[in-house]
């Protein structure tokens, strides 16, 4: 039965997107990474062109909310074991293959097995390069592509950096976090 009388319409304007505000540590880390150097180093050390690594940095920027999400340590350790001890990286999804590569580089970094200075830029470069080489060496992944592997490595490193509260270079000391904090976080994986 129709009703008569005035009809009230309420109009509410809602934002179309909400953006997460990155933590102070995240902003400092993102600002301290030399993007051109990351891309150039990864291209030189890895098996891919500039666009592969540049796209991975874009992925990091687009997914800043992921930087604060905890790393699934058990999954990363499992992926690393499959890739580097059992030589079956091809059985892993591409993002897990990337995480395994990031952990491999982290282990080399914290044990002094890398050359050059210890910077966030270098760590991200080496992890992405390692993921690209591991992807090719393993003949691919069980799912996903090379870009997914490189993105996975970059995100794993970024999470480690953010969650270890870096403020300066990895080799910082004292209260800056630095290598001591990274070593503490890395020890969970070793």
UniProtKB/TrEMBL annotation:
<dbReference type="InterPro" id="IPR056138">
    <property type="entry name" value="DUF7721"/>
</dbReference>
<feature type="region of interest" description="Disordered">
    <location>
        <begin position="64"/>
        <end position="91"/>
    </location>
</feature>
<dbReference type="Pfam" id="PF24845">
    <property type="entry name" value="DUF7721"/>
</dbReference>
<protein>
    <recommendedName>
        <fullName>DUF7721 domain-containing protein</fullName>
    </recommendedName>
</protein>
<feature type="domain" description="DUF7721">
    <location>
        <begin position="34"/>
        <end position="113"/>
    </location>
</feature>
<feature type="compositionally biased region" description="Basic and acidic residues">
    <location>
        <begin position="64"/>
        <end position="77"/>
    </location>
</feature>
């Amino acid at each position: 039965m129709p009703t008569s009388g005035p009809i009230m319409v309420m109009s509410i304007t809602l934002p179309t997107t909400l953006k997460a505000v990155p933590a102070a540590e995240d902003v400092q880390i993102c600002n301290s990474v030399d993007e051109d150097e990351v891309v150039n180093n990864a291209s030189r050390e890895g098996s891919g062109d500039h666009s592969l690594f540049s796209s991975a940095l874009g992925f990091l920027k687009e997914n800043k909310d992921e930087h604060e999400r905890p790393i699934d340590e058990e999954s990363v350790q499992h992926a690393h074991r499959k890739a580097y001890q059992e030589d079956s990286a091809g059985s892993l999804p591409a993002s897990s293959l990337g995480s395994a590569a990031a952990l491999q580089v982290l282990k080399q970094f914290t044990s002094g097995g890398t050359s050059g200075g210890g910077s966030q830029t270098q760590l991200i470069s080496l992890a992405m390069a390692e993921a690209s080489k591991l992807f090719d060496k393993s003949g691919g992944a069980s799912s996903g592509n090379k870009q997914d592997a490189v993105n996975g490595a970059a995100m794993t490193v970024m999470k480690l950096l953010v969650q270890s509260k870096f403020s300066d270079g990895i080799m910082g000391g004292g209260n800056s976090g630095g290598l001591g904090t990274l070593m503490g976080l890395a020890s969970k994986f070793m």
